[in-house]
Amino acid sequence: MASLLERILRTGDKKTLKVLRKYAETINTLEDEIRALTDEELKSETDKFRARLADGESLDALLPEAFAVVREAADRVLGMRHFDVQLMGGAALHLGNIAEMRTGEGKTLVATAPAYLNALTGKGVHVVTTNDFLAQYQSDLMGRVFRFLGLTCGCILANMDPAARRKQYAADITYGTNNEFGFDYLRDNMAWSSDELVQRGHNFVIVDEVDSILIDEARTPLIISGQASGDVNRWYVEFSKIVAKLDREDDYEVDEKKRTVGVLETGIEKVEDYLGIDNLYEASNTPLIGFLNNAIKAKELFKKDKDYVVVNGEVMIVDEHTGRALEGRRYSEGMHQAIEAKENVTIKAENQTLATITLQNYFRMYDKISGMTGTALTEAAEFQGTYKLGVVEIPTNKPAIRQDQADLIYKNEIAKFNAVVEDIAERHKTGQPILVGTTSVEKSEYLSRLLAKKGIRHEVLNAKQHAREASVVAMAGRKNAVTVSTNMAGRGTDIMLGGNAEFLAVAEMERRGLDAELHADEYNKQWDEVFAQAKKTVAKEAIEVAELGGLYVLGTERHESRRIDNQLRGRAGRQGDPGESRFYLSMTDDLMRRFNSGMAERIMNNPSMPDDVALESKMVSRAIESAQAQVEGVNAEQRKNVLKYDDVMNRQREAIYTDRRAILEGNDLQEKVGHFLEDVVKAMVVEATQVGNPDEWDLKQLWLNLKQLYPIGITLSEVTEEAGGVAHLSAQFLEREILSDAQYQYELREKQIGSGVMRDLERRVVLSTIGRKWQEHLYEMDYLKEGIGLRAMAQRDPLVEYQREGYTMFLTMMEGIREESIGTLFNLEVPTGAEEAAQAGPSEPAPATNLQYTGPDEDGHANTTREPASNPQKNKKKAKNKR
């Protein structure tokens, strides 16, 4: 079935390519005409395009001319002219596709044409990159093209205050990372006034490295959390003690591949005996199951000095890719507390979710979404299914001639790295540039020590110092360069043979103290000369390096995902350059050990296989592909599961956020509050009259409830007398009489405090109540999700149960919002003086402090940034970045 789907997708791909080629041909016919324009005439085309749009012409119709204008502007301003395939890639983006373009095909330049075209609508365009450095770099460089054509260009960076963010979002084109865009959306929906809002809508987005952002990072939702109330720490300690007495296999099972645990019947009985309860799975005991599972995971899946270290009484997560302790970063959903209990250190309070959204649902809000990457075809079906995005493979500008050599497989890691060092040493003698990819900084440093012993000069990079790594990776194509890097380091930066002229030129401009935005005129005046000199510097060396075979990419381990392997290979052979790639593997590599342990063990124990002899085996190659397919399948299922559950929340989130936004934007709430009043009165009457005859109704209790809601002006005896006795009462009559009285009392209250004050009070009360009830609801939904998997034991579909119960809880929350809002509006004490009353409460809640922002890092793992005393909504202190 999958192959059939792939064939269908490829058929659509061919049709799209024909359309894209036609666009490129049409753009080329306009080149002479556009080139003849002066700078001022070229810039004036922008206003002409806008006027034509206003007259009803479509963006599709404008595309050829707009793209031709951008191509000419880029050539004049940057000295970079779009190739035909780059125009095709840009057209694919405009049409709402993913453009798969090989590494080195100039994706940064590709984005300029569709960004310009769609920015003409005035609704804004967002360009998403994987880190702040790339966002800043691309907005500075490509922003020169946009500004030349009369458009504004902004960039969202971490720690910007709200005013700065608002200004950047107001630009025609805004660059930033997925986390920054997503968290700004969540913060906007926690705002207490329209003045705090920073975003202005979700029109068109171009996602660079789209597979990394929409696939790898999609397993981790964006979460803003604050400190939760309640003392649950004792349960972490209690369950840590219980689990210490349980035995693996006898009392519980562990699946290390999926990182899940399951408690067996004997284990359940032991836990019940320890706690003195009859049934662990009774509804009242459901929260305990989460503590139990986390305690087992802490014991079995999280290893001290590998996954975390204990420093000065604090549990600190170790980044699996860098081997470094990440200060401030914490596991979510009680996992960190379970590890703290295991290590017998102080347990820090658990956080409560205040706002959350998955990247899938964030990006699906855009009217049009597109993306670029060098590796998307392997995930084409998921892009189509989740985002309705087609993947179009754009041809290379020049034929690819890179040679991908067969994998060399060694018995163990020591033999593998010895062979790697020998290969590097031999090639380094010739001057051929070498890029080595490793899976962690720990292994990078190990290899670095081996190279140092050999006297081989080299650079070592990790994936955290974005600015430095980009500049080093950009120079990794120079003669004699040896660069050891984690697989993801420097992604988004071209490795050009002989060096990257563009980077050299930018560095020179910085040395001269010139900023692309602040000194635009002088920058543009000097750029051509500086860039031309940089190109001369690298041109001669590029020829020498090409004669040596181009860049040699050496992988020291296969990644879990084929895409990451392909990304590493793709560093070599850009733009038709020569290049070569090879992977060195061992049977003790994580991928082989975890997913093909049986075969690995057989080979390891084979005495006829020497340690230092490489194995080239189709069986092993198939095993590697099988292992990668298994991991990709597990990860895809995890993403699908995250999305299924968030889709339930998404419908609720959209309803709540739409209501909040309408209130913030100043919509008159008088009519809405009137409906609230009707609904609350009706619900109270229905509850009191739904059972039995009128003489069986507990009307005294109804009146007590009404008195708590508002200052009721009619008595039960008056209503009974009006109806002609209890026997003649009906629910409809009661509802009509009570509602009439409640509406009268509300009008009376408005006269007492004034209409202006009442409208302001309605806004404050409803906004405050929605915020509080929504936070409570998020907590309840988290609680529901934690235990919902148990429904499978009763032969029920957990997702269906989550949808059903979540909907019921949502309706209950909405009822609570209505009733609490009405009660507060009637009963809140408001000063009678107009000036004092205008400032009356409920005052808007103070911004939450100690917020934590959890989102994916570039490897897709959950990363938490703590904000100690301020929220970006308030520009008081700089947020302190922690991981």
Can you put this structure into words, describing what you see?
The protein is of the alpha/beta class and 883 residues long. Helix content is 53%, strand content 12%. It starts with a helix and ends in a 16-residue tail after the last strand. The model is unreliable at 1-6, 834-843 and 868-883 (pLDDT under 50). It catalyses: ATP + H2O + cellular proteinSide 1 = ADP + phosphate + cellular proteinSide 2.
- How would you write the strand order of the largest sheet? 3-4-2-5-13-1-14
User: Pairing-aware structural class of the strands and helices?
Assistant: alpha/beta
| DSSP summary, beta strand count | 23
Task: Give the low-confidence spans.
Answer: 1-6, 834-843, 868-883
Annotated CATH topology of the largest domain: Rossmann fold
Annotated CATH architecture of the largest domain:
3-Layer(aba) Sandwich
Q: What is the residue-averaged pLDDT?
A: 84
CATH class membership of the largest domain? Alpha Beta
- Please state the overall shape, judged from the principal axes of the Cα atoms: globular
The N- and C-terminal alpha carbons lie at a distance of: 42 Å
Domain Helicase C-terminal: 416-621
Biased composition (Basic residues): 874-883
Domain Helicase ATP-binding: 88-246
Subunit structure: Monomer and homodimer. Part of the essential Sec protein translocation apparatus which comprises SecA, SecYEG and auxiliary proteins SecDF. Other proteins may also be involved.
